[in-house]
Amino acid sequence: MTANRHSLADLERGTPFERRHIGPDASDQAKMLAQVGFGSLDELTAAAVPDVIRSTEALRLPDARSEADVLDELRGLAQRNQVLQPMIGLGYYGTFTPPVILRNVMENPAWYTAYTPYQPEISQGRLEALLNFQTVVSDLTGLPTSGASLLDESTAAAEAVALSRRVGKVKQGVYVIDADCMPQTIAVIRTRAEPTGVETVVADLSEGIPAEVAERGVFGVLVQYPGASGAVRDPRAVIEQAHGLGAVVTLAADLLALTLLTSPGELGADIAVGSSQRFGVPMGFGGPHAGYMAVRDSYARSLPGRLVGVSKDADDAQAYRLALQTREQHIRREKATSNICTAQVLLAVMAGMYAVYHGPDGLAAIARRTHRYTTLLAEGLRAGGAEVVHAAYFDTLTVRTEGRAAQVVAAACEAGVNLRLVDEDHVGVSCDETTGRAQLTAVWRAFGVEAATFGDSGIDELDAAAGDPLPEALLRTDDYLTHPVFHQHRSETAMLRYLRRLADRDYALDRGMIPLGSCTMKLNATTEMEAVTWPGFAGMHPFAPVDQAQGYLTLIRELEERLAEVTGYDEVSLQPNAGSQGELAGLLAVRAYHRANGDPQRTVCLIPSSAHGTNAASAVMAGMKVVIVKTGDDGDVDAEDLRAKIEKHGAELAVLMVTYPSTHGVFEEHITDICAAVHDAGGQVYVDGANLNALLGLARPGRFGADVSHLNLHKTFCIPHGGGGPGVGPVGVRAHLAPYLPNHPLQPSAGPETGIGPVSGAPWGSAGILPISWAYVRLMGSEGLRRATQVAVLGANYVAKRLEPHYPVLYTGPGGLIAHECIIDVRPLTKATGVSIDDVAKRLIDYGFHAPTMSFPVAGTLMIEPTESEDLAELDRFCAAMIAIRAEIDKVASGEWTAEDNPLRNAPHTAAQLGRDWEFPYSRQEAAFPAGVEASDKYWPPVRRVDGAFGDRNLVCSCPPMEEYDS
Fold it and tell me: Both 787 and 759 in a single domain?
């Protein structure tokens, strides 16, 4: 009996979360260590991680807690947020997420654990969903080409400034911003414009571009439609005037308003930008939300970010793929036109599905209801003696109250409604689809309008008497969303099945391993995800008074402190809403630091040739000159070339950007020497945090010589990739750079007064998903994070050892060890047999795997990162597939199969192929059910290999027209 006796303390501990997060158990770790040649994780760590960077002290983090305890903590934080009716506006609105979309997209791992659709054959579901989103944006804006989402409205507008400069006729001059644009957008544009030498002018354009501005030359103009004040003005005269000056015109347009108002394209605009947040995406204290950009035809091939196109597969069947400049920063580097690397795919999918579910009539009905409530609110205010400033509006009113604005806002708050304090004399009020009669009454009372005058019957009387304040000349008359997809899924049954059908076409982490090097596709635990959709977090407006957001602010502060602790930095900003934006924020901090020290000439950014392409693009955006440093044959930075470049550019050296471990997956032995050499020359060191999953708990960049890093919360800290976004890219800095972190004009507590300005539209970026990373750190604790890193390094070395007899491992460190990823070289096999890296990647689909990262950082190679979350059985299944593929390549080499007709060249194979006449020199079994693939578990790609070049030559980026469906 005593053998079965357990203490209460033992029983209360339960299973630590780290055992759920880390795939290999102790027994499997022992087998893997034996394969690699070590007796323990600590022995492996001591051999793989250089002594000069290794941390000796434990991280000062709270002890790990159970999943139940962490959820209780999160509930307590959510309860400290006071969620009032959001009537602040400024681009963020209450919205009702249809539960069928909330449960089956936002909360569904089939959607949120997917990766960017770079392998289109196994991404047809999310590509179709993104094509729907592009069609919604294109139809509503009246512009033919829309991208697959940008990071938010403000950064989309900043991208439009860069695009206008690039494609416009006027190469000098200023960029003119209407004074009625969103204040956060104006601020982000200023942050982004100044380092690149773009001068911005904010002017009241209600009467046109002022003559003194026009005389200076104008290369672009931005107008908000409707304005931040709520005013609906006809922009045609300004657009015509701007075009007469040779300027490119952008309208920042509200998608819901565009269901009723004339589209930007019909008005003559060249570009439209905005947010799709109010199409069913919760506010989440500022994000994540899918920004959008749509352009005229002639700008399509200059569009920043991702673009989904329609192509064809090997059977000439319609197939979708990412088109054109996708990941252009990898190809063009310092010549890239944007540093955008991620998008907001999960949120774009939600917004697109919101339009699919409601259809054009439903969207218009939501818009009319929102507008009608605004109209009745205005009529009641006027009847009570208040002055509504603008006669024409859609959903937002500016109300003049001499000296009483703060009092009105406070009274509304007492009644459960948040209004916008514009200044001491003006209050902003915005309606949305969640506005009801109770909110009208509360707002009237706050303004001192006698509530009894407007009970339910009074509202009906107002409704009967009130006209429509939208100008007749701006009412929309054309049809939109005419494609069948926006008319076929009205019932929840139909919608549910459509979402399931698309999800079944995709491969995500819920199916199997996605061994992508540099991308860290690890477990996104349900406990970490759960709080994101709770109303206490999801329902917060980003510009709500901070005393209503104490739960959020506590979570943000604690996450910042814990990220600073694990990285060795002094301060962290969570504002950047993508890794690329974290890079930009870090480089802007370095630039500001040098300028503050009287060294404005320090503009040279040294970047190793192997670096992630966003590094160079971000440096150019930060006003720096990129100088490439050679990479040695072993994958390390060429120390001799680095010293030569430092000597050459000494007085001009601003910063060295380096990825650590290196982009080649190796711990460089001389990183501290490299940092010291840069510091001795007066420069700063930026360590790209993309590979932090190999360091966490073992080494801290801020302690081994780095001054600044961005971190990828969507890699190391478990925020899911969501099919290509959301991402979060916080920036960590040492104390001397802290005064130059991002800040925000609408929330002073979001950053230092001396900061660089905002890099995102919301004060804390994509705050709505920060509970994920907070929960991960809380669940794992110091020791759990350390073991996760050790097992990630173990997994990579295990895979490398298993595959090394079959494929060369391109780069290794001392003892033949690697960090958390390995690069295998397919080039010799390609040269000998003609089997390409594409053939291997597509053949892996037949074996039930997503391919590793292809041809980065070295063309013709595969970069494999297993992470700590994959168990030994899955690692062995992947290794077995790769070994079997090598045997297939050998059959090509021997002449058993020709280079033109073999299972690799014809991969992937679809179910439809098996039902047709078989003309291949291998069997159906070999094609679809190679060794290790069970028929009952088979993943079937919906299309054969996609023809990328055809899609680029014949660019189609919205739902095909009706006649194609008819045919």
Answer: no
Ramachandran assignment for 470, one of left (phi > 0), alpha (psi -120 to 50 degrees), beta (any other)? beta
How many other CB atoms are found less than 10 A from the CB of residue 26?
8
What are 603-641's pLDDT values in tens digits? Answer: 999 999 888 778 988 999 999 999 999 988 887 889 899
Cα–chain-centroid distance for residue 387?
42
Please choose, from the candidates 708, 729, 585, 666, the residue with its C-alpha nearest in 3D space to the C-alpha of residue 857: 666
The pLDDT, as a whole number, for residue 151 is 96
From 374, 405, 373, select the one nearest 390 (Cα to Cα).
374
pLDDT digits (tens, 9 = 90+) for 44-82: 999 999 999 999 888 999 999 999 999 999 999 999 999
Domain count for the chain, please give it. 3
Same domain, residue pair 766 and 800: no
C-alpha to C-alpha distance for 661 and 731, rounded to whole angstroms: 18
CA 405, chain centre distance (Å): 37
Same domain, 809 and 724: no
Q: Are 177 and 236 found together in one domain? A: yes
Q: pLDDT-derived band of residue 967, with 50, 70 and 90 as boundaries?
A: very low
Domain that holds residue 874: 781-935
What is the distance between the alpha carbons of residues 736 and 448, in angstroms, rounded to a whole number?
51
| DSSP code, position 807 | S
Residue 660 to residue 788: CA distance in whole angstroms: 18
Q: Which residues contact 665 (CB under 8 A, 6 or more apart)?
A: 517, 635, 691, 796, 811, 818, 819, 820, 821, 822, 823, 863, 865
Specify the pLDDT at position 334. Answer: 63
307, 299 in Cβ contact below 8 A?
Answer: no
Q: What is the CATH number of the domain that holds 255?
A: 3.40.640.10
245 CB-side CA count, 13 A: 28
E strand residue ranges, 610-746:
625-629, 653-659, 684-689, 708-711, 731-733
Does some domain include residue 352? yes
Identity at 398, one-letter amino acid code: T
* Rounded CA separation 247/208 (Å): 13
Residue 1 has pLDDT above 70, yes or no: no
Q: Are 224 and 244 part of one and the same domain?
A: yes
Q: Examine the domain organization and report whether 217 and 152 are in the same domain.
A: yes
